[in-house]
Design brief:
Layout lengths: L1 E2 L6 E5 L3 H11 L38 E7 L6 E5 L5 E6 L3 H13 L6 E5 L4 E2 L12 E2 L9
Parallel strand pairs: 3-7
Antiparallel strand pairs: 1-8, 2-5, 2-6, 3-4, 4-5
Amino acid sequence: MIVKKLAHGIILTVTLNISTFAAEADKIGSGGAGNKTPILWRDPHDIASRNLFFGPGGESHQPHGPYKFVKEDLDGTNPKFVVHDRDGVKWKVKLGGEGKPETVASRIAWAVGFYTNEDYFLHDIQVKDMPARLHRGQNLVAPGATSTTSG
C-alpha cells in the first residue's frame, strides 16, 4: 500500500524500556551487586559534540529499508504500525502530525543527558505486506496500491 505523501512525514522509533536504563546503570556502576539503580540522566559532558541530526542511535542505527509489515498498533491516539527493517530491527512507524515535534523533543532531551528512544524522521518509506485495510490511518493510505507505503 502507499501512504500518501504528507507534509508531516512519518517517524520510526525503536522503543527502549527501563531494562535498557538498568543495563546502562550496570555499565556505569552504582554500588555492589544487587544495588544497581536504573538511571534516566547522566552528565552529557560536551553537549556541542552531540549529533542532533541522528540522535542517540547515530547514523549507524538509522533504519534501513525495505520494511516488512508486522502488525498494526492500536494503542494511543495516532495511527501506527510495527515493521522490521532489512536488518531485522523492529521499528514502530507513526503516521500523522506528531512525527516532527516528537523527533525534535527526543533529540533535545538526549542532548542534555536524558535517555530517549531512537527516533528517526523519514519523509517516505516502502513497506511490504501491508494489509488491505488498516483499523486507523486508512485515509493516509492511497487506494489501489499493492505492497509499498510512502509517507
